[in-house]
Amino acid sequence: MAKIVLVAAVARNGAIGVKGGLPWRLPSDLKHLRATTWGRPMIMGRKTFDSIGKPLPGRESIVVTRDATFARDDVHVARTIDEALAIGAERAQAMGVDEIMVIGGGELYRATLDRADRIVLSEVDLAPQGDAFFPALDMRRWREVSRETPPRGEKDDAAFTVRVLERI
Fold this sequence. Notes:
Elements: E1 3-11, E2 15-17, H1 27-37, E3 41-45, H2 46-52, E4 60-64, E5 76-78, H3 81-95, E6 99-102, H4 106-112, E7 118-124, E8 132-133, E9 142-148, E10 160-167
Parallel strand pairs: 1-6, 1-7, 3-4, 3-6, 4-5
Antiparallel strand pairs: 2-8, 7-10, 9-10
């Protein structure tokens, strides 16, 4: 059974997005996202997919949407979380990996948090305005297994720390 891994960049105030985009520029964290999700199926909401604008190379995109008219040849489309997870498990097996990555947005994180096995959390040292937020974590259910603070890139708006949490 494939593990469900939430991957998110979260500000100090819990913000993860604003007006359909990221509330910061963090090229270093985008490189981290690429390395973390490479070669794995990724589940995202339609708004997250729209903000990215295209499937990301080296991964398979599964887009969850209630819009019955949404269709694209270059992504897998799911109408429910359960359908997305089933597609993710099938694709993970076909790709020879044991993880399904959930990359946002807020509604999808809330819907999958109770099923997640691991969280890869980039904690961004900012508190910007936001209209999408990561759900609050009950730390009695999670344990930190690693923490690193990558060097801040010259084009990064802020420093960030990557914490990996596993379900207890």
